[in-house]
Specification:
alpha/beta; 2 domains; six-stranded parallel beta sheet; 16% strand; elongated
């Protein structure tokens, strides 16, 4: 279905405010929203899915209109709390239309972190009292219009409803998202790995983990020194802190992304309060959710090092080229942490960039063995 057809149907139903967290299955949807609405304040890329629900709720309270919240199905967990304790008819009865990308749909090949989430997606929506309609390649405009008419009755009763989007449903032209940074991210990750040496590394979900996996495989044939956070976006920083607290003699590196950091930025305050002395937090900032289509984040307009210092980090730096990155990382390695390093990187990656191929449980056990032998 052409994405213009779907969004036009939503507009005819009076839905003209959109917020959410991007998903690869919804890339055409997000791109068209960026093209139509960003400049008019009617499309907000939020920090996480729960925040999107809250933002949409405020918009409904101010206007009485039905807002739309979009997300990957992995974000349902973030949205569950405000849905259950804010928008549900037994609380404030705030109606929202959800558009959910169905990763890990049973019967479809997908990455391991999506499999269980895909299995429980429809049950989760049902448990939240959210009626849903599954859209596939055969869905017609007439079915969409009929579904929206039925949903209007739910909205009038203060209930929410959802369109669940399967792979390949939407088509449309991509929207060109850009930044002005020049440093290649994979090169920046490679420099970081070189400086880190034999220290354990925790990497965030997405292309940073994919690049780390390939760099380690090329350099040493394996990645037993790394914990690859292939799912649970936004949580690698707390995983790294837990490792640092459990093995305080080891220097721990957290390789983070701007979208993931924004999702649960409160973790930085916990880092500062716990003050792990051998801890280096590196954020590769391209001001975009690149892994799921490149939609912009607000990180391009935020002073991340200043936030780190305000949260209690010992030192905070910014690098935008390979030489300054090497110098800063060497300094960080020899400093009493926690240390924060923002690396401003360009958008884009190699077309042939692979994915972690090691079975996840095996990867966990080899990493735990490495920590036990190194601590």
């Amino acid at each position: 279905m052409e994405i213009i057809t779907f969004i036009s149907a939503l507009e005819l139903a009076g839905i003209t405010f959109f917020t959410g967290v991007p998903d690869s299955l919804l890339s055409a949807f997000c791109d068209e929203l960026a093209r139509r609405y960003t400049d008019r304040g009617k499309h907000i890329v939020a920090h996480n899915e729960g925040g999107s629900v809250a933002l949409a709720s405020g918009y409904h309270l101010a206007t009485g209109k039905i807002p739309c919240v979009y997300m990957q199905n992995s974000g349902i967990g973030n949205a569950f709390n405000p849905v259950a304790s804010l928008t549900h008819p037994k609380v404030y009865g705030i109606p929202i239309l959800f558009v959910v990308g169905w990763r890990g749909m049973p019967g479809a090949k997908d990455e391991p972190q999506h499999v269980f989430q895909g299995e429980v997606t429809l049950n989760l929506l049902a448990s939240m009292d959210i009626e849903y309609f599954v859209m596939d390649k055969a869905t017609s405009l007439g079915q969409i219009e009929t579904t929206l008419l039925r949903y209007n009755e739910l909205f009038a009763a203060g209930k929410s409803a959802a369109f669940v989007i399967t792979e390949g449903v939407f088509s449309g032209n991509s929207y060109a998202h850009k930044n002005d940074f020049l440093l290649n991210r994979e090169k920046a990750v490679e420099v970081t790995v070189q400086v880190a040496g034999n220290d354990p590394i925790v990497s965030t979900t997405g292309k940073i983990t994919r690049e780390l996996f390939e760099i380690r495989k090329k350099q040493m044939g394996g990645h037993e020194k790394d914990f690859l956070t292939v799912g649970s976006m936004g949580h690698c920083l707390m995983i790294a802190l837990g490792i640092s607290l459990g093995q305080p003699k080891l220097r721990v590196w957290c390789l983070d992304g701007d979208g993931a950091l924004l999702m649960h930025m409160g973790s930085m305050g916990i880092i500062g309060s716990q003050f792990p002395e051998k801890f280096i937090h590196v954020v590769y900032n391209n001001a975009a959710h690149e892994t799921v289509g490149g939609m912009p984040t607000c990180a391009g307009a935020i002073d991340l090092p200043a936030i780190a210092l305000a949260c209690g980090y010992s030192y905070a730096y910014r690098a935008d080229n390979e030489q300054s990155l090497k110098e800063i990382l060497e300094q960080a390695k020899n400093s009493r942490g926690p240390v924060f390093v923002e690396v401003q990187v360009a958008l884009g990656s190699r077309p042939e960039l692979g994915r972690p191929s090691t079975e996840l449980l095996k990867s966990k056990y080899t990493f735990m063995q490495f920590l036990a032998e190194s601590g």
